[in-house]
Fold this protein.
Amino acid sequence: FKKIREATCAATEMCTAAVTNCIIHAYEGQVQKIEIFCRREGQKLWVDVIDKGVGIRDVAKAMEPLFTTKPEKDRSGMGFTFMEAFMDEVTVESQVGYGTVVHMKKTIGR
């Protein structure tokens, strides 16, 4: 029981870090509305973070290390690549003028 609980706790902390990262990036992009949808099926947790912002102009590069849309003085280099370290899968969909959806999947409860 203890090992399962520790694994679940670690997975929860990783998911929290990834979702928080999405929210911070949306907030910094002056997004007015952020929605978070979660679902669990067995040992899989899916989280979608949806913002109704300006979108990412070059979404094909969004998962590259050091990619950012921020001005040079505000760059941290963490971005979406940071989330890949915590989640099993991360994909980004975005349309300029409509917003961005970040899909994440994590196996929990191992």
